Amino acid sequence: MKLHRQLLTAAVAAALFVPVAHAEVAIDVIGGSEITFEGLVQADGNWFDNDRADLNGSTGKNGKDSEFELRRAELVLKGKGPGNIEWVVGYDAKADKFLDTNAKYKLGGNSNHYLQVGQYKQPNSLEELSSTKNNDFISKATVTNTYAVARRLGVGYGLGDSNWSVTASAFGRELTRDLAHGSGYGLRGTFAPINDKGNILHFGLSYADYDTDADTLRLRARPNADLATVRLVDTGDMKDSDRISTLGAEAMYVQGPFKAQAEYFNAKVKRYDHDNYTSDGYYLSGVWNVTGETWSYKGGTPGLGLPNDPGRGMWQLGARFDHIDLNDGGLRAPAMVGGAPLVDGVLGGKMDVWTVGANWYWRSNFKASLNYVMVDSKKYSSSARGFVSDKPNILEARLQFFW
Fold it and tell me: What Pfam families does its record include (predicted)?
């Protein structure tokens, strides 16, 4: 870990001493490849107003209702060329894992028509595919964190134009050892019937199907707080799981400084010795750029540029509602009077989450975020012999530096 800290310190120092701050640092042209260096450092703080569960109590980090942590320390080398080849090697020094590490060949020189090999984000979920440094909220939506397939090793093919795209991928494990496993495939199609500057309407559908790891699957979710050590909804281990397939639907509308976005996920798990399991969830969000900036659109995902006035910065206000339902079953009457009811199926719980927040992007490299999260969850408890509610609130803050 000491080596990781030294590497991160050297990278940040190099970025800070570049004469003019840019979104990326040009390195050199080597072997016909234009090489640039990018980075992202995020530091988070979470303050918990607990209800029933102690959201940061299972690890006993500091004995208080708060946690502070370096969330990400991403270092990325990118290359353009030779010819129609683009490549990237990314590493997170905080999580000790590889990020995007792949090569892309643009067929006919068209950036919308390509073949990709290596580790990359799989073709599903608008929020998962969007840039991490421009997240609307500190934590991704509950359903995104639960259902979306992130980076895996694979082979992908993409075809599209300015207002539509189709992507297919066959994938396996994550590049870093002992992380996500399970071979499968993913498909995503997008269509933007309106795609003008400051006026965008986007629709998308995705489907991912893959093997579960060691025939065991567990779906669970934090209360939209990345530093929480407790999950308020949790299916437990479903040990006879074979495959999971997830259907996703997405929509986004941009009108000037306003953006509305929504996604729905429905997941089905094929099981050997039990009935198949189904769960679903969705989120709805809205963001307003108070200072008047708008979003761009490319390859089926939105992009956010620099502030109109770098010295003043870009201010955003946003709100999001999340819902996830991990219940697929019910309760049967006990076998004898006074006994506990029998669980028929899987009762992983339900959770609704409201998040309100503000972001401030300053100049080209800095961002500060503040979120307030209100949670309403309910899950079956065998000890209580019934459903138990838990309604905590969380204050979240993030400082971000990127180049």
Answer: Porin_O_P
- Tokens representing residue 346 in the block: 């899987």
**Burial label, 127 (beta-carbon count in 10 A; 0-12, 13-18, 19+):** buried
DSSP letter (8 states) at residue 243: E
pLDDT tens digit sequence for 122-146: 999 999 999 999 999 999 999 999 9
Paired strand residues for 165: 160, 190
Reference 328, options 369, 286, 370, 276; nearest CA is: 276
**What does DSSP say about strands 342-362 and 220-221: parallel, antiparallel, or unpaired?**
unpaired
pTM for the complete prediction? 0.91
Q: 174: which 2 tokens?
A: 């994550």
Averaged pLDDT, 147-175: 97
**For position 134, which CATH number holds?**
2.40.160.10
Residue % of the chain over a pLDDT of 70: 91
Nearest Cα to 121, choosing from 137, 99, 95? 99
Number of domains in the chain: 1
pLDDT at position 91 over 60? yes
| CA dihedral of residues 56, 60, 61, 67 (deg, nearest 10) | 20
Q: What is the pLDDT of residues 351-374, one digit of tens each?
A: 999 999 999 999 989 999 999 999
Question: Strands 342-362, 301-304: parallel, antiparallel or unpaired by DSSP?
Answer: unpaired
209 and 187 Cβ atoms separated by less than 8 Å: no
Cα distance between residue 135 and residue 173, in whole Å: 26
Token code pair at residue 262: 């929504």
Q: Phi, psi (5° rounding) for residue 329?
A: 160, -165
Q: What is the 3-state secondary structure (H, E, C) of 144-208?
A: HHHHCCCEEEEEEEEEEECCEEEEEEEECCCCCCCCCCCCEEEEEEEEEEEEECCEEEEEEEEEE
pLDDT digits (tens, 9 = 90+) for 297-355: 999 999 999 999 999 999 999 999 999 999 999 888 765 556 677 888 999 999 999 99
Alpha-carbon distance of 178 to 214, in angstroms, equals 12
Residue 144: domain span? 2-402
